[in-house]
Amino acid sequence: GLRSTLDAVKAHLLHERTSTFSETNPLDQYAMVWDFQGAGWSNLDWEAFHCTIHEGAHHYPNMGSQIYVLNVSPPVRWIWNAASRFMHPRIRRKCLLIPPAEVNACLQKVIPLESLPEKYGGTGAPWLGPQEA
């Protein structure tokens, strides 16, 4: 689950650590990407969403640098904009809601093109789906 994944990320970052600070990731943080393509109110797992927020805040504080939420529909962005006024500024800064038309450009900014599948404008191999991973 989520905790196992974040523990593996933490172990990887510790393993890669050297006697000097990393110039690209000095705080040993991770970025999380959620793809909401095809998501709707009928198939949204609110329990998993709340669990993710709780785990990040209580067991992995300040490890997450950025959360990219891809393919977010206009109604969800509207709800986010209304609710975000009541959120901590750090949460608002860390969460980026990306509409479908901007997904490729966003991913091309944060992922090397050789690691990004052609589907997103890169030159890398396709990513495995949950069934194949």
Description:
By secondary structure, the chain is an alpha/beta fold. Helix content is 39%, strand content 13%. It has helices at 2-16, 46-58, 74-83, 89-94, 103-110, and strands at residues 30-35, 64-70, 95-98. Strands 1-2-3 form a 3-stranded parallel β-sheet. The chain is globular. The two termini are 13 Å apart.
Question: Topology of this protein?
Answer:
Blueprint: H1 2-16, E1 30-35, H2 46-58, E2 64-70, H3 74-83, H4 89-94, E3 95-98, H5 103-110
Parallel strand pairs: 1-2, 2-3
Helix content: 25-40%
Query: For this entry, what is the oligomeric state of its chains?
Result: single chain
Q: How do the SSEs run, as a string of H and E?
A: HEHEHHEH
Radius of gyration: 16 Å
The fraction of residues in strands falls at: 5-15%
Structural class: alpha/beta
Q: How many strand segments?
A: 3
Tell me about the largest β-sheet: 3 strands, parallel
Instruction: Indicate the overall shape.
Output: globular
Number of helices: 5
What is the spatial order of strands in the main beta sheet? 1-2-3
Report, as a whole number of angstroms, the end-to-end distance. Answer: 13 Å
Overall pLDDT metric: 84
Instruction: Outline the low-pLDDT stretches.
Output: none
